[in-house]
From TrEMBL:
GO terms for biological process, alphabetical: peptide transport; transmembrane transport
Keywords: ATP-binding, Cell membrane, Membrane, Nucleotide-binding, Transport
Domain of life of the source: Bacteria
Originating species: Primorskyibacter flagellatus
Any single Pfam family the record assigns to this protein: oligo_HPY
Protein's name in the database: ABC transporter ATP-binding protein
Membrane topology: Peripheral membrane protein
Length: 321
């Protein structure tokens, strides 16, 4: 079976007065139907720009300069804005980080869901209300018929995010890109939304890309991880394998820095140094200045090399178990 989404050599650059910012620098991955993939890394690693690039939502001075994004066999890179708008929401949707910034405070939730439905074809008011009520029920909002008449400010943060997820699901898209949608929520609400998304992916067959800097959150949801650093995927594979046996030094550092990995009272482990400026990346491996295993070989650029279900871009990866 062909993958639902196939990304090959994607490069998104921002041309600024200071120079060219290589926010996404050769990202490649595949997404199967119903699969949940986590896209993780530090802030500034290129995760969000990758997600925006998939939907063609990168504004000037940014643009996709190279690569391919194939959705259900159709190439999206180079497609006109008009054709992209026909596919956004219907074939590929996005759940943004802050629902209060994406939901219009002037319209009720029901009005906004109806407008989303009408953007891809005519639909009667009764059918729109029925579909909207069905989706609110699916994402776990109580009294869905009454809540269709409520405004966004009448919902809690967790409920607003559920509404955003329901809107993303209205047209039964093949792929949903979720950009850190639980970052601002408390732990209990976060767990509820993760459970909801896992169930929805299973029941609807929708594939999900979950963007986050929080490995603990992603590990409880995603079946596969892609770890990004300086605009590149440095390691990719099944979630359980990567968490148990990380091969790239950067992935090892991310996992070791989790508070749960430290002994009580002991200082937290940290990755030395800071992420490099995307305006002036070091030659060769961008992680080399921070890497404890760096050698002269790292002056060359590592290639993401696949070995079975795992892939790693490193000249000195840890040996597989």
């Amino acid at each position: 079976m062909s993958p639902v989404l196939e990304v090959t050599g994607l490069r998104t650059h921002f041309h600024t007065r200071a120079g060219v910012v290589k926010a996404v620098d050769g990202v490649s991955f595949k997404l199967e139907q119903g699969e949940i993939m986590g896209l993780v890394g530090e802030s500034g690693s290129g995760k969000t720009v990758t997600g925006f690039s998939l939907l063609g939502l990168v504004d000037p001075p940014g643009r996709i300069v190279e690569g391919s994004v194939r959705l259900n066999g159709t190439e999206l890179v180079g497609m006109s804005e008009r054709d992209l708008r026909r596919r956004r929401g219907r074939e590929i949707s996005m759940v943004f980080q802050d629902p209060i910034a994406t939901l219009n405070p002037m319209f009720t939730v029901g009005q906004q869901m109806r407008m989303a439905l009408e953007s891809h074809g005519s639909i009667s008011g009764r059918a729109a209300a029925a579909r909207s009520e069905e989706l609110l029920t699916m994402v776990g909002i109580p009294s869905p018929r009454a809540r269709l008449r409520a405004y966004p400010h009448e919902f809690s943060g967790g409920m607003r995010q559920r509404v955003a997820i329901a809107i993303a699901l209205l047209h039964r898209p093949s792929v949903i890109v979720a950009d850190e949608p639980t970052t601002a929520l408390d732990v209990s609400i976060q767990a509820q939304i993760l459970a909801t998304m896992r169930t929805l992916a299973t029941e609807t067959g929708t594939s999900l890309i979950w963007i986050s800097h929080d490995l603990a959150v992603v590990s409880s949801l995603a079946t596969r991880l892609a770890v990004m650093y300086a605009g590149r995927v440095v390691e990719e594979g099944p979630t359980a394998d990567i968490l148990r046996r990380p091969r790239h030094p950067y992935t090892q550092g991310l996992i070791a820095s989790l508070p749960a990995m430290a002994e009580p009272g002991a200082p937290l482990t940290q990755i030395p140094g800071t992420t490099p400026s995307l305006l002036s990346l070091p030659p060769g491996c961008p992680f080399a200045p921070r890497c404890p295993r760096a050698t002269a070989a790292c002056a060359a650029e590592p290639v993401l090399t696949r070995d079975g279900t795992r892939a790693v871009a490193c000249f000195h990866p840890a040996e597989p178990a």
